[in-house]
Amino acid sequence: MSNAIHPQPHDIRKVAVLGAGTMGSRIAAHVANAGLPVVLLDIVPPGVGADAAKAERNKFVLAALDGLKKSKPAAFYTPDAAGKIATGNFEDDLGLIADCDWIIEVVAENLEIKRGLLEKVQKHRRAGSIITSNTSGLPIAKIVEGMPDDLRHHWFGTHFFNPPRYMRLLEIIPTDESSAEDIAAISHFGDQRLGKAIVPSHDTPNFIANRIGTFSMGNAIRLMQAQGLTIEEVDALTGAPLGWPKTGTFRLGDLVGVDVLAHVASNFAAQAEKIGDERQDVVLASFIAKMLEKKWLGDKAKQGFYKKEGKDKDGRDLRHVLDWQTLDYKPSMRPKFAALEMAKNVERTTARIPQLLHADAGSDKAAAFYWPLLTELFTYSANRVAADGSQPADTIVEIDQAMKTGFNWELGPFEMFDAAGMKATTERMRAAGAPVAENTEKLLAYAEANGVEASWYVDDVSVASGRRYFDPFTGSYKPVLVADGVSSLAAVKKSHGVFKKNAGASVVDLGDGVAAIELHSKMNALGGDIVSLILQTLKPGSEAVANFSSFVITGDSTNFSVGANLMQLLLSVQEEEWDEVEMMVKQFQNMTQAIRFCPRPVVVAPYGMCLGGGVEISLHAAARQPHAELYMGLVETGVGLIPAGGGCKEMTIKSIEAGASIRPDARGEGVEIFEALKKNFETIAMAKVSTSAAEARGLGFLKASDLITINRERLLTDAKARAMGIAEAGYSAPVVQMAIPAPGENALATLKLAVWTMRQGAFISEHDAKIANWVAYALCGGKVTPGTPVSEQYLLDLEREAFLSLCGEKKTQERIAFTLKTGKPLRN
Question: Which of 128, 177, 323, 491 is placed for a possible disulfide with 466 were both Cys, Cβ 3.0 to 4.6 Å?
Answer without folding.
Answer: 491
